[in-house]
Amino acid sequence: METIFITGATSGIGKACAELLAKQGKRLIICGRRKEILEELKQKLSQCVEVYTLSFDVRNQQDVHKSIASLPENWKNIDVLINSAGNAHGLDKLDEGKIADWDAMIDGNVKGLLYVSQPIIRTMKMRRKGHIINLSSIAGRETYAGGTVYCVSKHAVEAISKGMRLELTEFGIKVTNVQPGAAETAFSLVRFKGDTERADKVYEGYKPLTAEDIADAIAYCINAPEHVTIADICIMPSAQASTTVTYRHM
Fold this sequence. Notes:
The structure is a single chain. This protein has a seven-stranded parallel beta sheet, sandwiched between helices. The chain contains eight helices and seven strands; from the N terminus they run βαβαβαβαβαβαααβ. The chain is globular, with a radius of gyration of 17 Å. Helices cover about 40% and strands about 15% of the residues. The protein starts with a strand and ends in a 15-residue tail after the last strand. Helix 1 crosses helix 8 and helix 4 (about 100-125) runs parallel beside helix 5. With about 250 residues, it is of the alpha/beta class.
């Protein structure tokens, strides 16, 4: 039975992945900052599969490595890593940007992904097998005004995914880069600091993706035959043409 390690499992795409993969009988290590939500999710998913929880902030390198090192021996062999944890903060132009927002995005989306991946990669290389799935964004393909630093962080995920693939393919490790378009999760609510009205407007006039849509695509990548790697997959709602062009029917 495969063991799948999921960051950002307390909400959005990470949670949707945990729920879907549990139904498929995958053994799960679910990670997040909010212990109480992790425990609630564990209780729910444990009806289907074995579940282990780790509570840490991906931005804290020491906590990340300590948490992963604390895994019991029978949980240390991770077959699939889903780097789902990430964030967007603000929609300010660069000259008006808040340094705290920049740090949150770079530390979470880039450094956090690296902190989690490094110790797991080491184990995968020794076993000569594994699969790493990184959550990028269509913002990793394009840049838009007001989102420069967020786009920078997701462009970095694109580069990390390519670099991982170059370094790890010889060890039998697959790398998949997932680029979601507009998906209705807590993403916009976080970006707009809890402003529900402003967040809701992002999804007005068309049907956005759901977290479950992305989880379904990720499950497809995981379940592909051993000789098949889905290297990159870009998923947008049918009303979206680019990061800045969405056809709304008001």
